[in-house]
Amino acid sequence: MIVDIDIGNTRAKWRLSSEGSAIEHGVLDARCNEWTALQSLRSYQPERVRVSNVAGGDVAERVRQIAAKAFGLEVEFAVASKAVGEVVSGYEQPERLGVDRWLALLSGWELFRSRCVVVDAGSALTFDFLDEQARHLGGYIIPGRQMMLDSLYGGTSGVRSGASQAVALNYGQNTDSAVHNGCLAMTISLIEKMLSVEGLGMNNLVLTGGDAQSLLVHLPSSVAHVPDLVLDGLALALP
To answer: Which of 6, 29, 58, 100 is catalytic?
Structure first.
């Protein structure tokens, strides 16, 4: 039994698996101190706890305490490195690549075994590119949709959030829908651009992250959706 945890800036996803098959899974508030859902896995007597953490040292220490108290285990934290298997980092300082992005890259290569784009739609929207030899070419990091909205609502005097409404790609006919629909249009346009840039040849694109489900309906059917891409990468980085 293995507990895998993907801790982002706002959410923490966890999965209990045995011999590669998921038994239980869930989502937690990464900023919350009470991770009772993990403590409840004590009855399964897990043998390992593998973690991807981008939420900082305080959260890491909290997970260490829970794993020690509930399971009597030391946490195995994944780190970004120069290479794992065939995948080679494209960062000048590989250890400075976000570990979640690194694990998603490992999973992306495992999925396609070819040139691909790995997109994580979370608090930030990240793009990472692999060539046909599994070399990481680098990537982009831009604000996620909620961060875009927070920036507009917090940084302008004339733009204020109104009643919540359905978000679509049609033109907004009031300020609130113009903001929401515009942020969605920007996000979708950039993702689609990655599939069509001449010379890149990036026909394979995998999407993950908390915002992925709401984006899929506006994207080509060729886009792969793997919700647990980072969790899958833990098994590749820490076999």
So the answer is: 100
